[in-house]
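Example 3.
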Amino acid sequence: MAGHSWATAASMRLSFLNESTSMDATGNRTACQQADAEFAAIHAALCSYRRRRNAIVSISRLSGDILSHIFSFLTGEITWNGKVGWVQVTWVCSRWRNVALRCPSLWQKINFNLGNEWADTFLTRRKSLPLYFTQFNCLPAHGRLIPRQCELMLKHMDRTKELQLTDSRSSDKAGMMRDFIQKLTMPAPLLQSFSLSLNVHHPLPSKLFDHIAPQLRHIVFSNVTNFPWTQGIFRNLVTLSLETWGPRPEAYTASFNDLLEFLRLSSSTLESLRLSYNILRLPGRPVHIPSKVSLPSLVELTLNEDLLAGTYLIRHLTIPHSAQVVLGLGHYQQRSHGELEMALGNLFPHIHCGNRKLDLHVEFISEEEGPYERGDFYVQIRRFLPQNVLEAKPAVVLTFDMDRDRQAERELTQDLFAALPPHMYNIRQVVMRTDQYSDSSTMAEVHQEDWAEILGKRRDIRHIYAECEAGAGLCEALGMYQLPPGWHIIGSTIEDMRVFVLPNLSSLILREVDFDELITIDDEDVSVHTMLCRNLQARKASGIPLDRLRLKACISSDWSWLEDLEGVVGAVVGLDYESLSLKEQKKMDEEDGI
Amino acid sequence: MPTIVSVDDSTVPGEGSSRLLLLVSSDNKHIVVEEDIMSRSRFISKQVEGFEATSQRHAILLPFSSFVLNKVIEYCSHYRGYYLLEDDPDAAPPGRSPVREWDQEFLDVDRNMLLRIIKAAHYLEIKSLVGSCARAIADMIRGKTTEEMREILGVENDFTPEEEHSPSSKCTG
């Protein structure tokens, strides 16, 4: 009925077209223009009626506040490879667009992944409110965008609240980031959080933020050298995380005096302290410390440092009983028998607390044979750990990474788990770690039965950390163990894809899929990603889809696999950065003449 | 504003440690609920404060159905006595609500019901429930194309050609 009346109305309105065959060229042109005008009018009328129709559907009856609240949950979506992610909500209908455009809080994270025009659009829509520059990295493909992006960030530093910079893996372009860092000498009065991840060691400018960053509370640095411990802007920090990769000159490491002075100045505010890999330098001779540094607000202490340097620092701190302690104490240097014994003996009296969540990870890293046998190190650990672990009642998480001495690792693992009584069953995590350069198949054989036995006894374990080549052993072990519901596996790449079809596995977090690993895998006929998709599709087909898959720092030569994942897994989240296709990078590199 | 009608004490006993409230839904269903349970609602709390000022108790008429109201009461009953930051009027707004497993199951309902619950929660000023509903609705459209979003929520493309191609629309980057 409705169709008939509209057809009748249209035929009347457009009746002039009936005579078009007898018209001359001018007449035809006029008729076309008249028809276009009619079509435009019809379209405008349709839009108007669609708007009125939209106004009565349920979602439109929600207030603008609620609608923008809904959109706020989407703003964390990753935009990459030309995909605009959550911004699509502005294209759904006029009301959604109006609501989104009138809500500056949605546009706070300035997005560079989509190019300069989008960055400008975000800035305009953010109006004059504080800015968050996140996900900014110096990818080769972004090379030509960098100067403009840097200029933009510097221009808006006075209203930047969060600055997150990640260096490129490409040495050609990484220099741009380091040049940019040297320009960070203007005041940052609103800056609260500053994260800087560099691939090679590099210092901060001496006049960082012109010494004006009174709101600065959170610092996360990788490979930043000569950290200015005593600079005023680093007082009152809530979070300090420093790490270095690879060898660094000894002059860059922190002196204990500077570090302790810094801790004293931040003592009332510091909640999280993380120092990893060669930040600490053991003093050549004992330092005179008048008193211990008390950190009453500390919630988390993470030290991944040399065993002796780490224990030395711990002895000079007083931390709350409730603070979680994560210790990754490596045996990096040759130490005498007495030094080892003293360090391990001193460790527990200083960190032991019945209520503390303690994650202890002791590893043997030294490549050189010392004057002592490697076995000595394990003998020391075996002597001190079990008795102390038994004393630390709840929530102890043990991680052992002693892959270079399988027999010792096996014995220690057996000892520890044999020693753990039922009241220790609140251990939630087991780390399976192998050295990627070792013979993983042999490793799996060694561990398979042990792990199956351990897991069989420990029904409360819900998380497994599995690093790259632990796949086979992990699968075999889990195959023997009936998984309780709600299991999580966290790993880098997991070689054996049978992991994905484990029925009760509800979350898989791939922390890093390394470029080099993927290059190797991509040389083969089936990439790891294709295998991943196939296994996830199989899970879905059998009615047990994975709830959550997280990929971080992922690089791939072909992104079609990610599209294949859509609808297969509950949510793919956390595709953080460096998420451009290699093809695109290559194309842009060629255009740049690289 | 809801219409407030007087009720006698026999309908709503007001003595004792946990007083009762009479809530009347738009389909005229009378639901008696303990005041404690509904204290998470800023709207109800303000109404109760008003009752205390006038020393009179009333039924509170609400503009949504008993079906929706019962869902909201179920939510409030579950979190009775729990501290949720979003519902603390004295706390700084937490931004986005955290994921709560129970909420996810509770809100595993059809689209229309979800929209009704969020409207009711907004009316009753239960921020934690508004946040959880908003998250659930966001999850429905997360990662979807524009066309899929329209289809899921029953919305039509109502842009004029000029709006569709305006600079504020599609930034080509």
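The radius of gyration of chain B is 20 Å. The interface with chain A takes residues 95-96, 111-112, 115-116, 118-119, 122, 130-131, 134-135, 137-139, 141-146, 149-150, 153-161, 163, 168-173 of chain B (CB under 8 Å).
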